[in-house]
Amino acid sequence: MDARFTDEQDEIRRALRELLHKRCGTEDVRAAVDRPQGYDPGLWTALGEQLGLPGLALPEEYGGAGCTRTEVALAAEELGRALAPTPFLATAVLAAPLLLALGTDAQRAELLPRIADGGLTAALAVPGARLGTALGLTGPPGADWAGGGRAGGVQARHTADRWRLYGEADQVVDGHSAGLLLVPAHTGGYARSRVLLFLVAGDAAGVVRTRLTGLDATRGQGRVQLRHVQAELLGSDEGTDVRAALAGLGDFTAAVLAGEAVGAADRALERTVEYVKQREQFGRAIGSFQAVKHRLADVYVAVRAARSAAYYAAWATAHGEPVGGLALAQALEALRTAAGECIQLHGGIGFTWEHEAHLAFKRAAGDELLFGPAHRLRAHAAEAAGLFAGEEVAV
User: Fold this and answer.
1) Is the peptide bond preceding residue 373 cis, with omega within 30 degrees of 0?
2) What is the pTM of this model?
3) Which of 81, 276, 289, 362 lies 20 to 30 angstroms, CA to CA, from 59?
4) Are residues 107 and 130 in the same domain?
5) Distance in angstroms between the alpha carbons of the first and the last residue of the chain
6) Is 186 found in the same domain as 251?
7) Nearest to 263 by CA among 32, 24, 31, 3
């Protein structure tokens, strides 16, 4: 592994940081999450048109930049620093790779260029709070994450040359606003039940979407109800292993989330250091007290260690080494530590709900609820690696 960034990687990070610095300050973030979409469409358009962020890892033939997944994970660090509310995770990380891997030539040609230029957003509508399991991060890929074949989740029926879906998916990242939904659904009846992926237009007849009030407002979530909705099968129903495709996507998703968490943790530490240099007690800056120095030194070490793990995961995800779950566990713990100390050392003002430190703290807690928690990420990684063969791993 060459730990140095390439010129292209440095340029991606620099350009992204400059744009987010101008258009995604704390007040911009708060204003964006209050929009119906949960993000600023103008910022998303700029990220697509100026930087090509949605199509960073898509092939050039579909309007993408042709970069590797490493560049996507590195770019996520800058999005995390700003805690930018965008459809990046749902569209570019979860949906686009599935369309590329499983879609027919016609489906890829129709949808991927629209995703690459930022004109189309997408969401993966996994039922319930099972996204971490579906991605193979907190449970085996074969687990029944899709709701069960007899009832629950989303059911698919094929009648008169059409597929129709019925069911519900909660806690869908950007499910309330995405223009395209990728829906895993059961078909084949209970005895021969299998899971296939379907494409559903967000505004299709029979789709009822509700924006949820989540812990982390910068990571918008929605409830998606499907009432006999007409759908299009993604790819072919012959030889398509949806569970394997999702599990293969999990490590990449974890690497991206780890990068986001490291960026947010680093910015929380920077804010805290800036503040303790200014706030005074007993006639001196509180940053000069040894106890405060020790606490911030611990945070610094945690953030540096998490960054090293995230960078390795960013490299490894493009080389077939599944270490994303471990990097994500370390990054989430670092973010929770950095955000907690940020709140504590800001004193009384830090404990007010409106303070920006809480945005980082909620991101850490929200991501653990969606993709973790950290101890389950580690336990599943250990089990998958066979570290405790013959022993039960408590999760």
Assistant:
1) yes
2) 0.93
3) 81
4) no
5) 32
6) no
7) 24
CATH of the domain at 293: 1.20.140.10
Neighbours of 14 (CB within 10 A): 11
Q: Is residue 122 within 8 Å of 112, Cβ to Cβ?
A: no
Number of other CB atoms surrounding residue 166 within 10 Å: 15
Look at residue 2 and tell me if it is in a domain. no
Q: What is the domain extent for residue 259?
A: 244-385
- For residues 111 and 209, state if they share a domain: no
Q: Are residues 305 and 332 in the same domain?
A: yes
Q: Which helix (H) or strand (E) holds 224?
A: strand 221-233
Q: Which residues pair with 211 in a beta bridge?
A: 222
What pLDDT, in 10s, does the model give residues 68-114? Answer: 999 999 999 999 999 999 999 999 999 999 999 999 999 999 999 99
Q: Report the DSSP beta bridge partners of residue 274.
A: none
Residue 168: which CATH number?
2.40.110.10
Residues 291 and 228 in one domain: no
Question: pLDDT for 183-213, tens place per residue?
Answer: 999 887 655 678 899 999 999 999 999 999 9
The Cα–Cα gap between 202 and 122 comes to 9
Q: Give the pair of three-digit tokens for residue 19.
A: 């744009």
